[in-house]
Amino acid sequence: MNRVYNFGAGPAMLPTSVMEQARDEMLNWQGIGVSVVEISHRSKEFEVLLTETDELMRELAGLPEDFEILYMHGSAQMQFAAVPLNLLDLNPAHKAAYLETGNFAQLARKEASRFGNISIAASSEETGFDRIPAFDPASLDPDTSYVHLTSNNTIFGTRWHQFPDTGKIPLVADMTSELMSRKLNFEQFGLIFAGLQKNLGPSGMATVLVRKELLGHAMSQTPALLNYVTYQKNHSMPNTINTFAIYIMNLMLKWLRDQGGVAAIEQLNAKKAGLLYDIIDNNDFYIGSAHKDHRSHMNVTFNLADSTLDKKFLDEALVRGLYALKGHRLVGGIRASIYNAMPMEGCQELADFMKDFAKQNG
Ligand SMILES: *Cc1c(COP(=O)(O)O)cnc(C)c1O
């Protein structure tokens, strides 16, 4: 089987065992004689799958009962509109504060600006988004409806190691590139959303974990399919849900449980990232892009000191079965995305290659 180590940022690699199970069950799911993509989302079997997925999610995330789990169309960026439409009306001032730590944070802020009074509470744009900016929640207007941040900055390779305490003002987090990769204290959050395609499954859908008390305040112009209450009332099936995405997510959650859950994978993720950051730090050949104190455990970004070698690096990596290491088009350089599904061996293989390449070309 010609599987490579896939370092792509997303849609990202899924564990081989998950892909194999999906393959084996593709034509005949649960002995029904049809595929999971060929059955009604209203069927008993699918309803059971969806409920089981909720339970797995709640158990593995450690999600308290006062949070609702929703599955919505449109992946992460649809939430850039859904969040303001559902939450801005929490306060008549229609204010929201955005913490600008990268491209996705910026896109979210721009989308929200269509609907209310949006401000930038802190930004690291001046330093090329190489860090998480200092932010004092005391600087927020008390009539702010919510604060938005991107917990892991997929393109720039930074993350919030600690989350700001915004007190009574709900904290909203785009966790597309790290949900279920680290333990969370849900007390700190009002709403968390994530596109599935990095740690949870295929593209096209998002999961939204939202405090029940925040629901029911959508602005009057909110389209039905962007209104969280529509999903809450219909077990996320006001219309036809992406049945295949739920199925793969269900397999991914079971796989995560088999790995020991979030706490265990968080430790493994730290080791995987550490292996690569060690090489970057101990070799003048490589230059890390992110400030050391704010480094992501999911996306390791770096440059070659001599960027004319980038192409050679990528070509030779591919020959060794190390795929999709090219940095995002906005920043260039190299990016190794090492989500939950990337095994330690893949990171070890990349670390060995980086050492060899530096020796031969340094
Ligand atoms: C990948 C990613 C997105 C992408 O949004 P889609 O709508 O799912 O394409 C958004 N936010 C973050 C933090 C991401 O990593």
From TrEMBL:
Biological role: Catalyzes the reversible conversion of 3-phosphohydroxypyruvate to phosphoserine and of 3-hydroxy-2-oxo-4-phosphonooxybutanoate to phosphohydroxythreonine.
Native organism: Pseudohongiella spirulinae
Subcellular location: Cytoplasm
Annotated PANTHER family: PHOSPHOSERINE AMINOTRANSFERASE (PTHR43247)
Protein name: Phosphoserine aminotransferase
GO molecular function list: O-phospho-L-serine:2-oxoglutarate aminotransferase activity; pyridoxal phosphate binding
Binding site for L-glutamate: R42
Sequence similarity: Belongs to the class-V pyridoxal-phosphate-dependent aminotransferase family. SerC subfamily.
Start and end residues of each Aminotransferase class V domain: 4-349
GO biological-process terms attached to the record: L-serine biosynthetic process; pyridoxine biosynthetic process
Organism taxonomic ancestry: Bacteria, Pseudomonadati, Pseudomonadota, Gammaproteobacteria, Pseudomonadales
EC number(s) per entry: 2.6.1.52
Record InterPro entries: Aminotrans_V_dom, Pser_aminoTfrase, PyrdxlP-dep_Trfase, PyrdxlP-dep_Trfase_major, PyrdxlP-dep_Trfase_small
Pathway: Cofactor biosynthesis; pyridoxine 5'-phosphate biosynthesis; pyridoxine 5'-phosphate from D-erythrose 4-phosphate: step 3/5; Amino-acid biosynthesis; L-serine biosynthesis; L-serine from 3-phospho-D-glycerate: step 2/3
Gene (UniProt): serC
Cofactor note as given: Binds 1 pyridoxal phosphate per subunit.
Any single Gene Ontology cellular-component annotation: cytoplasm
Substrates-to-products reaction catalysed: 4-(phosphooxy)-L-threonine + 2-oxoglutarate = (R)-3-hydroxy-2-oxo-4-phosphooxybutanoate + L-glutamate; O-phospho-L-serine + 2-oxoglutarate = 3-phosphooxypyruvate + L-glutamate
Listed Gene3D superfamilies: Aspartate Aminotransferase, domain 1 (3.90.1150.10), Type I PLP-dependent aspartate aminotransferase-like (Major domain) (3.40.640.10)
